[in-house]
Amino acid sequence: MDELSLESIVKSDEDVLIAALLEADEPVDWYVREGTPVPNEQTWKQLAFRAQIVTSMTESARDYLGDLEYVSASYKFGQVFLFPTGVQKVLCLVTKSGKQKIGLIENIQQRITKME
Hints:
4 helices; alpha+beta; Roadblock/LAMTOR2 domain-containing protein
């Protein structure tokens, strides 16, 4: 993942707490900002599984709306962004809750495009 160094993603934006690469139903790699609690193995597996379900469900709209760029979910204590990066591969970002992350989203989309 040259253009998508998980450490560089976390360090590039103070609101990013976790960057993880999820494949099928397993976390492949991750980087967690210092001071951020690390999810346990069960939480990682659930996150990976749910990411695959969400991204595969949205694929059905591809013919009408085009390729899926990202999916986001907003929670009380944070936001989760899922960016498809290949067949059954998803880049997952966990950020602080609050303002919309337009700059971050654009930055990640540019990095994914460079990989293709």
